[in-house]
Amino acid sequence: MIGIEDVSGPRKGLSVFARILMAGAALTLSGCVVPNDGPLTQEVLSAGAGGKAYEIPQTKLVFDVVSIDQRVANSVSAGTRQGFASTFGLGGGGSTPVIGVGDRLEVTIFEAGPDGLFSTSERKSTSIPVVVQPDGHGQIPYVGSVRFAGMTIDSARSTIVDALKAKAVEPDVIVAMADNASRTVSVQGAVNRASIVPLGLNGLHLSEVLAMAGGASKPPYDTYVSLKRGGRSRSVLLQTIIDNPRDDIYVKPDDQIFVSFDPQTFSALGQTEKSGKIPFNAAKLSLVEAAALAGGGNVATADPKGYFVFRYEDESVYRSVVGDDRFRDLISRGMAPDGEGRYPIVYRLDLGATQSYMVAQNFPVRNKDVIYLSRHVATDLAKFLSIISSGSSAAYNITRTARTF
């Protein structure tokens, strides 16, 4: 068998160069590349619109990479996410309700004379129950069919009085709502008592409607309230409604409310001691607290300058963070929103800077955020040298075996 000879003379063993070549060949044959756990810090920075664009084949995702400082943390923390008020308006209980199909009215007619259509010598009034029919009408003796649907209580009273003036003796009328069946809202899902809730004449806030349905069955920081009205819908964390009374809007008839239990979580990836989906178990969570829940970083492999938060951000917050000019520039480059109108952004925290630990206390983590701690570039070199060493040892053993033949 022919072996590879050393440059100092035949059969003196393999040269260092030959051993590296054999190790490289072994790595190539095994399809080996240096294993990694996601992109390096510089790769993330380069992927943003400010660096060299990173493109997935046939797809270009445009986003910005923003370093977290005190201004950015304050802007994100103060940013208000779209809620019920921005989608549906505040509404109001002061709006005058109207009579609808299915409502039950109590119509009381008074007359001045003792022997009128609705009075006797013993009493001067008669009460008539009226149920508004599917066609919107109801029957009143000596008046006939009256279209009540769409009328207010006052307009219904005036209509009946005018119709009786030529028939009754100085008539007067009182119309009362006995059962407001047309003004209801359905509440379903993770509540203690799913039900159809009557709104009454004064109107009810969303929190009052939920209370009448027995309240949410799970903690408010893990409970979402979805409201559908007409062709629009919006889902808001119940804790947000508690913290922001503006989103505790008035409910309207025929609104559909669904309450769901969906624990707030973030995903920890990369060089964190604990990876995977991690629940908040709290109403609010700062980036420092999230880092602690993820067990901190792996001191042997993590790059402290590469702590990233991947998120889809509301437009108002995005503009506040990067500025209107930068936001328009990103849009012109092709940045596009997701299905909820939010835009992709990556926040970077440099844990090598002392102030970052203070700043991160004011930076809020959002539901479904991805927190990624990149590996240090030296990690790849160490892995490569380890592989080369293993390959060289294997090649040396193979050569020694070959020489025995």
TrEMBL record:
Keyword hit for Signal: yes
Keyword terms: Signal
Pfam families cross-referenced by the UniProt entry: Poly_export, SLBB
Domain of life: Bacteria
Domain Soluble ligand binding, chain residue ranges per copy: 185-234
Keyword Transcription found: no
Occurrences of domain Polysaccharide export protein N-terminal (ranges): 97-177
Name of the protein: Polysaccharide export protein
Source species: Shinella curvata
